[in-house]
Amino acid sequence: MEMAVSILKAYLLFTIAVMLVYMFRHFIFTLNRLFGEQRIYYHDIIDSDLKTISVLIPMHNEEKVAACILDRLIKADYSHDKLEIIPINDFSDDTTKEILDDYAARYPFIRPLHRTEGERGKPVALNDAIDKAIGEIIIVFDADYLPPPGIIKNIAVCFNDPEAGAVMGRVIPVNTQENILTRLLDLERAGGYQVDQQARYNLRLIPQYGGTVGGFRKNLIVDLGYFDTSLLAEDTELTYRFLINGWKVLYANRAECYEELPEKWSVRSRQIRRWSRGHNGVMFRYIISLLKSSCLSLRERLDGMLLLLIYFIPVILLTGLCDSLILFFLGEMEIFAGIYFLIFIGAYNTFGNFAPFYQVGTACLLDGAPQRILLLPCLIFNFFFNMWYITRGFVDSIVDIITLRKTNWHKTERFRTAARRESAS
Amino acid sequence: MVKELKSNILYHRSYRKLQGRLKSFLLQFLLFAVPLSAITIFFYPQITHTICQITENILAPIFLEGEVKIAEIEYINAIGNISFIQLPSNFPTFAFSMINAIVCLAILILIPYVENSKPAVILVIIISSIQFISALFFLIFPLLFPYQAVDYSRLYMIQQISIWFFVPILMGLAVLPLPSSLESKFFTLAITYIYSLIFGTVRYVVFLFILGRISLLYMAVLFFLLGPLIDFVYIVGAYSIHVTRLANKIKGDFSLWKWQ
């Protein structure tokens, strides 16, 4: 019994130690973004020698949003001689095919790929399109995104750096005013991109390729075996595969693109559970090879490990809560009185989501968006919500490994109304 | 005119930053945050005694005469003892525990079907789970429950001292690096600290009332979900008000922003 209590106490201390590590990490990132030297992206490079670009847009039943993104990309500030757009109609049974064919008939650089056979899913669809693509650089957008005219040039220009393997731009939500959920997710995005990603880029750590609003070298993905279709988080997997093979992943804070956030909690719960499942799947696969990689510095390996574990932290928190509950009923409450303040610090760090409140507040300050800062206390709603669904996603990833279960790709439900489609175009 | 326009080149928000001054931050931390934390360390006997007097005055009429009184335990010998309230516990009956268990189980079975307000649903599930476990414990091992209300009272006060000590430090780390005025920074830290004292007192009174007059059954929920986690709400709230005011103020002040 004493041994059991000791183990429980030790696990509680471990939970607290992990929280402190992340608290310290996020605090360093916040200070760096607020006061440190900012590492400027490549957008000032003279861009007379542009690379050929293939823009891939996976689409499954995207009739609500397909026309908007294509209208935007047609206006892109990039020579059409060096640009092709490949919308990937992946087993759609709505009017997506008709919409794409209509655009293809009018614009020769729009070349849809209609998939009606084989496996379904984003990574498989991307692999098929990569085979068809003629561009040197592949840029991926999700179908609900609204790319501004300069974004393709902004993303592409970094590949003049021979070390650049992939690049990620900044995602800006467009439907933030819909309800409390979209407002809270807007805060999360701001903290994650304006502060976290940029600080990791400044400090030459590990920015992450996010699977959309980003690009990578075509020959690189082909040489490294295309996207892994067994994982849901193909973007995270690409990040780590590139890194351990000696390629850099960059972050372009200046390359802003607009996205549509989930407007229902049920949709968000499925999304974050899927992300957790995919990300943790990548974590199990890459954590050892990351730590052993000779292509990365010690700092990069450590930060890469902390980034890989980011969807594991809520699991640690939830099990820590269960652990402390057991200790409570065993009469070990004394341990809480003295060190519970450290759990206090843990909650201070992870309050709400993956970006602590001081990181989100800093992002809002830098963005010049004061009105949303007052919503920070509402992040407590996200705290338990994220903990719950991320843990379920983690359990999903464990079951995937044990049972070798095949992952099925589900896209996020779209909410764009006709009126918003009109204004988006 | 041209000079004025040229002097106001508006760089993109992607790479702008603020001027950081480490010495200034450390000085402000020593002058603002440390004294507030020091108040807790050097005056906790008086603070806890005052809180206990207030609590005793409120709770004494609700209990029998002499049941609610102030006790002391040693803490830091050089400074003094911590005061806390001694009061009787309301041990739950079998029937009360059973009702709680049934209600919590019903909630746990039915609430997942609620599609709207998922965060509230998750919170209710967690609260109901903890309460269900607590009810089961009292049903199966009633005599093994290791605490009385007085134990909670004592440990709550020790925990609160830690919270009062760390609130100025945490707020200081979050607020003091920002380019707001010294007055507003000190005001934010001081107000948050004072609020934490008041909030801790009110929560103490309410929780002791629940444990002493309603039931000991609720101790686990009070401890885990309505404890320090709730303190974050006002800490983050105070921070967000401070940063909102700062953001509104510096929006048009280009002299504050640096680039790269």
Task: Describe the protein's architecture and organization.
The complex is a heterodimer of chains A (425) and B (260). Chain A is of the alpha/beta class and 425 residues long. Chain A is built from 15 helices and seven strands. Chain A has helices at residues 2-35, 66-74, 96-106, 122-132, 151-156, 180-202, 218-223, 234-244, 265-292, 298-308, 313-329, 334-350, 357-367, 379-403, 418-424, and strands at 53-59, 83-90, 113-115, 137-140, 164-173, 214-217, 248-259. Chain A has a seven-stranded mixed beta sheet with strand order 3-2-1-4-6-5-7, sandwiched between helices. In chain A, strand 1, helix 2 and strand 2 (83-90) form a beta-alpha-beta unit. Chain B is mostly helical and 260 residues long. Chain B has one domain (21-91, 145-259). Helices cover 67% and strands 8% of the residues of chain B. Chain B has a two-stranded antiparallel sheet. Chain B has a two-stranded antiparallel ribbon with strand order 2-3. In chain B, helix 2 (22-59) packs parallel to helix 6 (182-214), helix 5 (149-175) packs parallel to helix 8 (228-250) and helix 6 runs antiparallel to helix 8. The mean pLDDT of chain B is 89.
Keywords for this structure?
A: 425 residues, alpha/beta, seven-stranded mixed sheet, 15 helices, B: 260 residues, mainly alpha, 67% helix, 8% strand, flat
Write the layout of secondary structure elements.
The complex is a heterodimer of chains A (425) and B (260).
Chain A (H helix, E strand, L loop, with lengths): L1 H34 L17 E7 L6 H9 L8 E8 L5 H11 L6 E3 L6 H11 L4 E4 L10 H6 L7 E10 L6 H23 L11 E4 H6 L10 H11 L3 E12 L5 H28 L5 H11 L4 H17 L4 H17 L6 H11 L11 H25 L14 H7 L1
Chain B lengths: L1 H6 L8 E3 L3 H38 L9 E8 L3 E7 L7 H17 L7 H23 L8 H27 L6 H33 L4 H7 L2 H23 L6 E3 L1
Antiparallel strand pairs in B: 1-4, 2-3
Summarize the structure.
The complex is a heterodimer of chains A (425) and B (260). With 425 residues, chain A is an alpha/beta fold. In chain A, 53% of the residues lie in helices and 11% in strands.
